[in-house]
Specification:
The protein is of the alpha+beta class. A 3-stranded antiparallel sheet has the order 2-1-3, with helices on one face.
Length: 70
């Protein structure tokens, strides 16, 4: 069963590669995309005027692992 997480935070610049605190914030897991979207909206709208804050929804499905990148 897929689990959804809201991931993000404040980044050093608008390339969104490195966070200010060093680690991204993770919220979840939640079981549905709709619930994840509500959580995403809660965090995203708090910082709507900050161009260096970004959140996204990540889906992790243990039954369908990502392809090997080795």
């Amino acid at each position: 069963m897929a689990q959804y997480y809201v991931v993000g935070g404040e980044y050093k610049d608008t390339h969104f590669r490195e966070t200010v605190g060093g680690d991204e914030e993770w919220y979840g897991p939640v079981e549905t995309y709709d619930t994840a979207r509500e959580e995403w909206a809660k965090h995203s709208w708090q910082f709507v005027d900050s161009c260096s804050v970004r959140y996204r929804i990540e889906c992790i499905d243990p039954d369908d692992p990502p392809p090997c990148t080795d």
